[in-house]
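A protein record pairs a chain with a discrete description of its three-dimensional fold. The following entry can be read in just this way:
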Amino acid sequence: MSEDDLVAFGETMLRLSPPGNERIESADEFEVRAGGAESNVAIAAQRLGLSATWLSKVPETPLGRRAVGELRKAGIETDVVWSHRGRQGTYYLERAGEPRGANVIYDRENTAVSTAKARELDLERIKSASVFFTTGITPALSSTLRDTTASLIKAAQTGGTTTAVDFNYRRKLWSPEEAKETMTHLFPGIDLLVIAARDARTVLGIEGDPRQLAHRLGSEYDLDTVVVTRGAEGAVGWHDGVVHEQPAYETDTVSKVGTGDAFTGAFIARRLDGDDVSTALEYAAATAALKRTIPGDIALVTEDEIEAVVREGGETLSR
């Protein structure tokens, strides 16, 4: 087995969406796509040149094979434990403009991944990787996964692997109190933390503007790098006591889903390639802008496209 640049652990679901702005309850057909935060990040990183592997536990069913097949088609390697118990997670996305807005319905109870234990997974693969990545979504899925996530982060530390985590709070999965208790317990093992400003305030109870949030998180939790995302206003990155600001690039939005994952995957890829935090943020913002022009969860972008956005300051997206 060759060494991976990035190993990501988590669940990838099948997404079912009615066409256009139709309601789920009246739709006669659904579009099917694969999507999961961790695999989305791995794919974005791979599109920028990294070798990336998605690690998970998947049911040995047609739906499970469909999810894995979609990720393989997107270009990343999959290292999965096939299970004869549990089911494949799905979610339904109903799209609409305001005031109705988008609606997400999760159907991910009793999934195969929720039973995944560290001893079932390829820990040596994690220890030999350059970066291990997961998100706060994974430990939210089950008490078993809370233990497993902690064990995988510890395994990465043992191997000298950089650990990267996107806080990625989902209120439909757990409460702010549960998320804070679990995630802050993981913080000592994390090198890079990506977190939305709203989550830092709502879940962690930290006040201040994004620059202050990044500095406080980095200092208080002894993190190496903190990236605070702020939606349409871009992001800030904290490293070695210095805060870097990056505005968002203007873009026409086809789909918001997966934008944050594209950002994180690109940031990790550029940092691993030797870029400083400021440059990595530029490429991350450009990748996120491009993702918003693409339907589905996955950032099927090219390095040339990303380079063009960075070089021209986003003008290519508004032509």
